[in-house]
Amino acid sequence: MSEQGDLSPDADGPHFSPSSVSADYRLSLPPSMETQIRKLKVSLEPWRQLVLLANQVLLWENPAYPTALLAGSTLVFALIWFCNAAFVTVLALLGLLLTLLDCLMPAILAALFKPDQWGGDKQRQYEETCTSLIMYKTKAELLSASFLRLRVTNPKIYFSISIVALCLLVWVGGTVDNVLLTYLLTTFCLLMPGMLRHGMLTKLSQTSSRLCNQLVEHAKTRVSAKKAQ
């Protein structure tokens, strides 16, 4: 979470490019984001040790972490599939688990981690993690606002994309098993921060783009050859 790309709002908004988060990040962030970061740090204060651990796991700071994420996700969804639990039951159990964690985990963390174990380096990592979370949130809001703005600036593209995407979701939801689909989406979301940090998605995007260009060039060559005949 401490890795992020460029984030550029519209021309009438604030501009910043947080290629890396440093101790003086406050100098380059707008006041609205400063407030959000401060509130997030306060709200996550009882969980700060767990936040750092989750950040390390999601960013694959150990080579074993992606395997652990995949194994954990697979185990949970295998249990759900084996028990054949109803959707409402799964939601209730998830809510119960989150409630118990919210009630008990701060006390458990306070007992396991003493205040003197929290040094300046951990505080810096905690602040960088909170800053990265707010930056990703802001980037998602900007992307969402840009797409919604198409409804006014270019309605044809907006409705075309919306209709095609929703029809695709309807087809996928009716074709793929719901548990399998949820498992794939959850696993992808868990692995995405690490893939972003290690550049895997960028490499995949570049490879896909190169393959598409090769297919287009091959199709053009065949069409030109047929016309020549």
Care to give the gist of this entry?
The protein is mainly alpha-helical and 229 residues long. It has eight helices and no strands. The longest helix has 34 residues, at 120-153.
Arithmetic mean of pLDDT: 81
Rg (CA only): 23 Å
Class inferred from helices and paired strands? mainly alpha
Please state roughly what percent of the residues sit in beta strands, choosing from under 5%, 5-15%, 15-25%, 25-35%, 35-45% or over 45%: under 5%
State the share of residues found in helices, binned by percent: over 70%
**How would the global form be characterised?**
extended
Pfam families: RHD_RETREG1-3
Main location: membrane
Membrane topology: Multi-pass membrane protein
Domain RETREG1-3/ARL6IP-like N-terminal reticulon-homology: 46-206
Task: Please describe the structure with a list of short key phrases separated by commas or semicolons.
single chain, about 230 residues, mainly alpha
Give structural notes.
The radius of gyration is 23 Å and the shape is extended. With 229 residues, it is mainly α. Helix content is 76%, strand content 0%. The N and C termini lie far apart (57 Å). Residues 2-27 have low confidence and may be disordered. Keywords: Membrane, Transmembrane, Transmembrane helix.
